[in-house]
Amino acid sequence: AMMMSIVAISIDAMLPALGLLHKDFVLSHPNQVQLVIMLIFAGMAIGQLIAGPMSDAKGRKPILYAGLALYLVGSVMCYQASNFDHLLIGRFIQGLGVAGPYVTAISVVRDKFSGSNMAQVMSLVMMIFILVPAIAPSLGEEIIHRFGFHTLFAMTTVYTGVSIVLALRLPPGTVPRSEGGAGEGHPVMVGDHRTA
Predict the structure, then answer these.
(1) How would DSSP label each residue in 88-107?
(2) Rg of the chain over all Cα atoms, to the nearest angstrom
(3) How far apart are CA 80 and CA 143, in angstroms?
């Protein structure tokens, strides 16, 4: 649930800052601030196409760690962004990275549980995933009001660091090769012209 909630925090906590971005970066058109949201979605869409098959090929944990590390890099880039273009690049990298924990969180639940147990766990995960967007804008607004919008990216950096520590405590990979999971995703992704 914490892994999946990174998506909601990245998007919803940023919403109160959109008006400030236009003034802070002296943008020529007010609608340019929408790119901050659009590019994280674009990165996430592309990232899921890669993270899904690769998590089947290489296992869940390597893709989870890679995604969290990439998201961390994107967060630091956004925090240090001195102009709007650098901020957008950081947001796109955040999107690419957040696809890893988002995809693997769902996959781990499906690997470890089945039937009614899976339904119970997914219900809990989705409850938290839905709850976070309700809280994130208020949290984001409070942080922006007190410390400025750059601090939002410091928050996501810390949140990601905690997520990495928790991810290190996860049990070993959950997709045995004998069941056709690990090892098959990558050839399918590369060999299927429809994926390309």
Answers:
(1) HHHHHHHHHHHHHHHHHHHH
(2) 18
(3) 17
